[in-house]
Design goal:
Layout (H helix, E strand, L loop, with lengths): L2 H9 L1 E2 L11 E6 L4 H4 L3 H11 L4 E6 L20 E5 L8 H8 L15 E5 L1 H5 L10 E3 L6 H12 L5 H9 L5 E2 L1 H4 L7 E2 L15 E2 L9 E5 L1 E2 L9 H5 L4 E2 L2 H14 L4 E5 L5 H13 L3 E3 L10 H9 L4 E7 L5 H4 L6 H13 L4 E8 L6 H20 L7 E7 L16 H17 L4 E4 L5 H10 L6 E4 L6 H10 L2 H10 L7 H11 L20 E2 L4 H12 L6 H5 L24
Parallel strand pairs: 2-3, 2-4, 4-5, 5-6, 8-20, 10-13, 13-14, 15-16, 16-17, 17-19, 18-19
Antiparallel strand pairs: 1-9, 6-7, 11-12
GO molecular function: catalytic activity; iron-sulfur cluster binding; metal ion binding
InterPro entries: Aldolase_TIM, Elp3/MiaA/NifB-like_rSAM, Radical_SAM_N2, rSAM, rSAM_sf
Pfam family, one: Radical_SAM_N2
């Protein structure tokens, strides 16, 4: 094992100690298709690690793509000799790295070419969940839905066939009968509603929190993460989480306290990051207060403005947090289109004032481009808000504080009302982004544009030239080839699976590079930017809890500037009458127990 890997392991604080293995365990490697500093904090991998660790018949390990090594992270298992490799597809930008993992282990890249003793490749995570078809050549099995309980059913089924002849096909046939398990070579690629998603799990029985903590990640310091809320009540029409992870469930108070006590008392963790989409402000405050009372510090991520209180900002400041971020998403006029409350610029400026009052120097705003109905008037409103915030920071004598603006394109996620939406061309979206940037520049503010395509030397020169005050930093993916690939992965079928296999060995650093490769392959990206009302939707191979009628109604409401019903949001945890197809689940409610 390489020295750098040993160093990373030694730097980790573990809740679960290393196991003494007997030698006959099922070897299950959980692979994150990105480097260690991004992969280690992922709660999906850590939660499944805990589930598998607690089994006596499984030896679980991890894998990251840092060094292309052919062995696992902790125990040094050869990838080729493992029973399972589970790959978590968290976002489209890392999908092609799955091929990198398989190549490192000398494992055939296409499932039908794998032999009897090759590992079973299991796919999961958001990208695999909202559309499994693009991953249907690289994965033998794909888990559709929440995996905490499904993973045990997979292991139990494997044990039956582990030592029999033709074990691979017998196992795949057996596991294809399990709820939420899609097996491409058994189920095929075209039948609508063939695989029903897994039933929602009780997050109090399977709480998601950090198992490993280290300073060597993208987080500043040794951060311990806890999922306090799974799902969201707010129904933003572009959001996968609010529609797929139903019903919303909240960690009970007693469960939460036990996890915080574990983190602070046993692991000596100081910083705790909570994930709580759409949770009521009073509950968030209550949970944060407990962490402070225990002597810990908190980290809060991007906030919904209407749920961000003065006390939450104060607690963040006490904890040493240096940036508050809110997500207006778009202009006030278009917030109805995406299903959010209309907010006034003055409300955001008040949050800037309170943040500065408590000594938090930096501020962040998130926006989405190409919302249906967007005009130059809306782009002007976005630019005006950015400039108002920068002026407010300067007025409060916070000229050294950075204003960070995240602006990325809308791309349609299956099983949301915007799965049908027509997108403008990527060139058009780039022009919209540059229009906003130029307006801010004309106001006299120094501007930095940060994206993965900008040459590092150019970006460094931009920063050196703009070390002065009143900086506005734009972060975007609009110039990155992933902005072209995202709609194709989210909306495509089996043809995208072949495309990904074709692309994995190619180099493309710009949109133009990718367009040339798509032309060589013979596929038209513009097809995936069109409206999907009358098109075949490959992702409908799975049957989810969400009702198709509900999604269509919400989409047409959006086009007519009609908001989502407030009652729908307020009673989301209880109501099965509006959006859920009751025929798809046996779940009876009762998990929202904060």
């Amino acid at each position: 094992m390489r020295t750098s890997l040993l160093y990373k392991i030694k730097e980790e604080e573990r809740i679960l100690p290393s196991k003494n293995l007997k030698g006959n365990e099922i070897i299950f490697i959980l692979a994150f298709p990105d480097i260690y500093k991004y992969g280690l904090p992922n709660l999906g991998i850590q939660t499944l690690y805990k589930e598998l660790y607690l089994r006596d018949d499984v030896a679980v390990d991890r894998y990251y793509t840092d060094e292309d090594q052919p062995f696992s992270f902790e125990y040094g298992f050869k990838l080729k000799d493992s029973d399972f490799i589970g790959i978590s597809f968290q976002y489209e930008g890392i999908v092609l790295n799955a091929f990198k993992i398989l190549k490192a282990g000398s494992i055939p890249l296409i499932n039908l070419l794998r032999e009897e003793n090759d590992p079973i490749i299991i796919g999961g995570g958001p990208v695999a969940n909202y559309n499994p078809l693009p991953l249907s050549l690289v994965c033998d099995v794909i888990v559709l839905g929440e995996a905490e309980e499904a993973i045990h059913k997979i292991i139990d089924s494997y044990k039956v066939y582990r030592n029999v002849k033709r074990k691979r096909m017998k196992f795949l046939q057996a596991v294809s009968q399990i709820e939420g398990i899609y097996v491409p070579c058994i189920h095929g690629f075209f039948q609508t509603g063939m695989v029903k998603q897994t039933s929602p799990v009780d997050i109090n029985e399977h709480p998601a929190h950090s198992i490993f903590v280290t300073k060597n990640t993208v987080y500043e310091g040794r951060v311990f993460s806890i999922e306090v809320r799974r799902g969201c009540t707010q129904r933003c029409r572009f959001c996968y989480m609010g529609h797929r992870l139903k019903p919303p469930r909240t960690l009970r108070w007693e469960t939460f306290k036990k996890i915080v006590d574990l983190a602070i008392d046993q692991c000596n963790v100081e910083i705790i990051k909570l994930f709580y989409e759409g949770l009521e402000t009073r509950i968030v405050e209550h949970y944060l207060e407990y962490i402070i009372k225990k002597g810990g510090r908190v980290r809060i991520g991007s906030q919904r403005l209407e749920k961000l209180s003065k006390r939450i900002i104060e607690i963040a400041a006490i904890s040493g947090q240096r940036k508050i971020t809110v997500a207006p998403e778009t202009s006030g006029r278009l917030r109805k289109v995406i299903g959010k409350h209309e907010i006034k610029d003055e409300e955001i400026l008040e949050v800037v004032r309170i943040s500065s009052l408590y000594g938090i120097p930096d501020f962040g705003l998130y926006f989405i481009l190409a919302i249906p109905g967007e005009t130059f008037e809306d782009l002007d409103k976005i630019a005006d808000l950015i400039m108002k915030v920068r002026h407010q920071m300067n007025k409060l004598k916070n000229t050294d504080g950075r204003l960070e603006i995240g602006i990325n394109p809308l791309y349609p996620k299956p099983f949301t009302p915007f799965q049908y939406v027509k997108l403008p061309s990527l060139k058009n979206i780039e022009d919209r982004f540059l229009y906003i940037v130029e307006k801010v520049k004309k106001e006299g503010f120094p501007v930095v544009i940060s994206n993965d395509v900008v040459d590092e030397k150019v970006e460094k020169r931009q920063k050196d030239e703009n070390e002065n005050e009143s900086l506005v930093k734009f972060e975007t993916t609009v110039f990155h080839p992933i902005s072209l690939l995202q709609p194709m992965i989210s909306r495509g079928g089996l043809e995208i699976a072949f495309l990904l296999h074709y692309l994995h060995s190619k180099r493309f650093n710009t949109v133009s590079d990718l367009e040339n490769l798509l032309n060589e392959f013979g596929i038209n990206a513009a097809w995936y930017f069109e409206e999907y009302i009358d098109k075949y939707c490959p992702w409908k191979i799975q049957k989810t809890l969400i009702s198709e009628d509900y999604l269509l109604k919400e989409y047409f409401k959006a086009l007519n500037f009609i908001s989502t019903d407030e009652e729908c949001k307020l009673n989301c945890s209880q109501c099965f009458n509006r959006c859920i197809d009751i025929s798809t689940t046996n779940y009876q409610g009762g998990m929202s127990n904060a």
